[in-house]
């Protein structure tokens, strides 16, 4: 061995020895059964988050969260539904409603960064049975949010200015929900008014300002909507019923004001609103919001007779989430809101979350609307909607220490749309088994909804009956 090789070998040996001794425990040796440490270390408190502090006080930090919502879904299909070409009255499916990763942090007194990455509605249909591209099941994940925010006032939320891809939204608290903390099994999706039409799963490229001044929580935004041609679905057809415009490009303006009577709500993640605090906060809010966009919609009554219309949406609502008995851990959650939804003359769109049916046999339902298979119902339309929910959190450790508790709930969406001949009512009843709060919970939910048939000789539709759906969800969140 030459001199150089000997020198390298000796240096490596010294480094290895130093590293080995540095890793040795400081407690006495326990090599023999009789040996015990001089003192037994106290068990550390269990952490409930993945957070890395960037300074000693923890005011500057970076954090990651992970969410997975698995669904077992049994659905009574709308008439004429098929599952991969075979007519099916019922369908059972297994899927992932949401799988998300959040990464965010306060990098300095004035700089905040937020990312969210994940996928949604992943079942055996892989996001679209009729898609022609190969390997559809492998292209579901995408960036939901990518936002940079500047806090104008140090350590104060009076004014935060942000820009990027974001869910900051003007219509209501449920237009930008924190899906890991919702009380019901699913959010009222109609409140995400343009979801996957002119946005990316409710997110838009936006410039916004938000903040909290006294009891007032506010957010205002100007958004750059995506053209309907890029949403991955077949283009809507021109006709007397309003559709999203295929020509032109205008900006969207929105704002939401909330008056917080008691505790201030969390204001960290841009735009997101907590579903329930499980009695940890005393919250009562009144809110009002709007979204408006010039010439967002279009209809054609006759050849050469094209009319562009504005999209105007607004809502007013109240939200209550507060403890009843802090000693027992019981709490209430309630929401009641009115939504005015003007998408232009006779606009109507069907939707069904995690739809378990792939198509509909139009021969069995002459003149049937596209997209009405499975569990779909007229979720979005020009008209008005009343939405309400109520839940009751039972006492802490209902099943014994560390074994969790229950939170039953009811929710209702009642709508009057121009193209629907009667009032639409969708009703859910369910119960959460909170194994470890929102970090680990099972939710059993039953939904009763109407299905619809075209009315002969008109553009309206009428109810043909009702169908049910039963879902078991398992959520894991950290």
Structural overview:
Residues 1-22 form the signal peptide. The structure is a single chain. Helix content is 4%, strand content 49%. It is mainly β and 478 residues long. Strand 14 and strand 15 form a beta hairpin.
Layout of secondary structure:
Layout: H1 3-22, E1 50-53, E2 61-76, E3 81-83, E4 86-87, E5 90-106, E6 111-122, E7 142-151, E8 160-166, E9 204-213, E10 216-224, E11 243-244, E12 252-260, E13 283-302, E14 305-325, E15 330-342, E16 348-351, E17 359-360, E18 377-381, E19 383-393, E20 405-417, E21 424-436, E22 440-454, E23 461-477
Antiparallel strand pairs: 1-2, 2-5, 2-23, 3-4, 3-17, 5-6, 6-7, 7-8, 8-9, 9-10, 10-12, 11-13, 12-13, 13-14, 14-15, 15-19, 16-18, 19-20, 20-21, 21-22, 22-23
Region (Disordered): 26-48
Keywords: Signal
Organism: Spirosoma aureum
Report a brief summary of the structure:
With 478 residues, the chain is mainly β.
